[in-house]
Amino acid sequence: MSVVLVVNSGSSSMKYQLTDVEAGEPLASGLIERIGQAEGRATHTVRHPSSPGSDAADDTFRVDVAVPDHDAAFAHMLDAFAEHGPSLDDHPPVAVGHRVVQGGARFFEPTVVTDRVKRDIEELEVLAPLHNPANLAGIVAAERAFPDVPHVAVFDTAFHQTLPPAAYTYAIDRELAAEHRVRRYGFHGTSHRFVSRAAAEFLGRPVDELRMIVLHLGNGASACAVSGGRSVETSMGMTPLEGLVMGTRSGDIDPAVLLHLQRVAGLDTDATDRLLNSRSGILGLGGHADMRDLVQASESGDDAATLALEVYAHRIRSYVGAYAAQLGRVDAIVFTAGVGENASIVREWSLAGLEGFGVEVDPERNRRRGSDARRISTDASKVAVLVVPTNEELEIARQALAVVDA
Ligand SMILES: Nc1ncnc2c1ncn2[C@@H]1O[C@H](COP(=O)(O)OP(=O)(O)O)[C@@H](O)[C@H]1O
Ligand SMILES: CC(=O)OP(=O)(O)O
Ligand SMILES: [Mg+2]
């Protein structure tokens, strides 16, 4: 058994998963929230792999606990494994895989963490101020907790290294852009990679024959045009702010709006940053960052919530059209992540009216719930519309193991 611990450190949370890579099954997972705040909360779930004939439920343990920093989060995680299992002595990780959001133009592949790699991740903080500092803090804390195993950084940007220059170049002064590394990098690459391969498997066709549009709709959201298994266009840019409407992020906006607000509403740089990253998206429009709450508000007649949903879907439809043009042909449109896998209304509204382009969602299939990959288009639809659950942790574990085994 090859067990890998996967860590996804955010600025105020840490997610972890202990995974048996060969079985493709998590043994345990957890989430430590509100790191650095007075009241935190930790959840630890012990998974019981479902064997034929048995339907064992997972065990989840929740505690309210103040967690001052990432070191404390790791200490808490180790306690949770000791108390609730599975025992790390019986399942020692052979590697720790870390999600790192921004790898710039430097990291193309999963990379064993060294002092040099840590310095590079730190140096890339200017290009991802919300994400990379937390990712690095998680790596440093994990090295302290697991000093004897290799640590592997897996970058959100790596899958998008195949973008052609025409897709990643912003039309601004090229010398200024080069000096400050201003270009589009793209994110959620681990998910787009995993999901595009899983979709090909579901369709029973080699990924290198397929052209597809993957819609990763979670808290952050991005679209990716995948041709022959390679990312050729994606909606996030230099940072994870560009593109689709998200939980709290605006996505695309005329940059002159910022200039205008700075002039007439006195917004400074930090206030502008907070507006676009934390107070916009469906939260800014409809009062809810969580899609479940937004859908519920809309269903109970809240017009602002309904408009937020319409804007969210309208933006997705625009990207689907644009990416169809870039790809020249679309074999599949694939929904994934929390919203994409669960919110049938978002899938329905996003693809409404595309029948003329061979995209026909079957309303009944779309409404049906499920946790496996499934087709939601009609049998007659020229383009297959799929829901494919993402599993970034398994993909990170696989990539970390491959590096360590190599
Ligand atoms: N049953 C559901 N219906 C609608 N939205 C859902 C459902 N379950 C989860 N979501 C939404 O998925 C989003 C979180 O997605 P997720 O992929 O877990 O995000 P992240 O990993 O980026 O934190 C939230 O907006 C949440 O409301
Ligand atoms: C890059 C990014 O947006 O990540 P997340 O969706 O986890 O916020
Ligand atoms: Mg996610």
From TrEMBL:
Molecular-function annotations in GO: acetate kinase activity; ATP binding; magnesium ion binding
Sequence positions that bind ATP: K15, H216, L217, G218, N219, G220, D290, M291, R292, G338, V339, G340, E341, N342
Enzyme Commission no: 2.7.2.1
Key words, A-Z: ATP-binding, Cytoplasm, Kinase, Magnesium, Metal-binding, Nucleotide-binding, Transferase
Binding annotation for Mg(2+): N8, E392
GO biological process, one term: acetate metabolic process
Subcellular location: Cytoplasm
Site label Transition state stabilizer, positions: H188, R249
Coiled coil start-end: none
Subunit structure: Homodimer.
Entry's family note: Belongs to the acetokinase family.
Protein name per Swiss-Prot or TrEMBL: Acetate kinase
Lineage: Bacteria, Bacillati, Actinomycetota, Actinomycetes, Micrococcales
Gene name per UniProt: ackA
